[in-house]
Amino acid sequence: MNKKIMILGVIVIIGIIAGLMFFRADKGGKEENTLVMGLDDSFPPMGFRNENNEIVGFDIDVAQAVCDRLGMELKLQQISWAAKEQELNSGNIDCIWNGFALNEERAATMNLTDPYIKGELYFILKNDSKIKDQEELRGKKVGVQAGSVQQSDLEQSDLGKDLEIVQYSDFLTAFMDLETGGIDAVCASSLIGNYLITSKNKDFITMDSRDISTSRGCVIAFKLGNDELKDKIQNTLYELKKDGTLKEISEKWFGKDMILVKEK
Predict the structure, then answer these.
(1) Structural domains in the chain, sorted by start
(2) How many CB atoms lie within 10 A of CB 220?
(3) Nearest to residue 230, comparing CAs of 107, 87, 82, 90?
(4) How far apart are CA 152 and CA 146, in angstroms?
(5) Edge-to-edge strands of the sheet including 95-101?
């Protein structure tokens, strides 16, 4: 009798362990109190690796401030930017948070926060470039980051029909190719462009774009239906705007307050 009870007890324990393992697998192996943030780790100043190989940046600081306020642990997950939607929908990450620009296509397929910061789309050229207007780019090579809203906007624009659009895995590689003459310009957000030009002391100039950009600012993206986590993050951003935390982080990385979040 005792032997039967012991066997039954072992079976029950095994069942509990198996259930917990299934639960964790169903959650993607993530703790519920951990925010897994998907990002491109070569997108300064939003998220990039410093000289110590640590991921730092504006979005990292904002995400950490949000998690500190919510009592959550922040986990940074480097992803391929071209496959970001698959990473989100598979549950490998909880959100895409890395200078992620808002457009209509993304709004239809993901659960997005309100815009929290905005950069302008422009072209970056070498200082000695003879190109002075975007119309003079026709027939030229223009670099973009694969999977970026800049790529999408440029491809769908009238100008894009007459360009050779060259895709790169990240903007840093595109800038290196621009520097060596492999391309004629880079199409990028002023958020990354201004930072790279000033922090790296690059001999580049910028040229405004016209009738190309569809972005209304950067947002944080969650899987469709994940309203609970999205609302939790959004409400915390309201709080951090109200107490001045977001302004402080913006001034640290951009030298001025570029925050779009409104106080609730």
Answers:
(1) 34-118+216-254 (3.40.190.10), 121-208 (3.40.190.10)
(2) 27
(3) 107
(4) 9
(5) 73-78, 34-39, 95-101, 218-222, 111-112
Which residue type does 118 have? K
**Which tens digit of pLDDT belongs to each residue from 82-119?**
899 999 999 999 999 999 988 888 999 999 999 999 88
Q: Report the distance separating Cα 65 and Cα 48, nearest Å.
A: 17
pLDDT in tens, 224-261: 999 999 999 999 999 999 999 999 999 999 888 989 99
pLDDT recorded at residue 233 = 97
Structure tokens at 173: 């590689």
Centre a 10 Å sphere on the Cβ of residue 21 and count the other Cβ atoms it contains: 11
Angle made by CA atoms 153, 159, 163, in degrees to the nearest 5: 95
Cis before residue 45, ω within 30 degrees of 0? yes
Q: What is the torsional sign of CA 220, 223, 226, 227?
A: positive
Q: Where are the beta strands (DSSP E) in the chain?
A: 34-39, 42-43, 47-49, 55-56, 73-78, 95-101, 111-112, 121-126, 141-145, 164-168, 185-189, 204-208, 218-222
User: What strand order describes the sheet that includes 42-43?
Assistant: 42-43, 47-49, 55-56
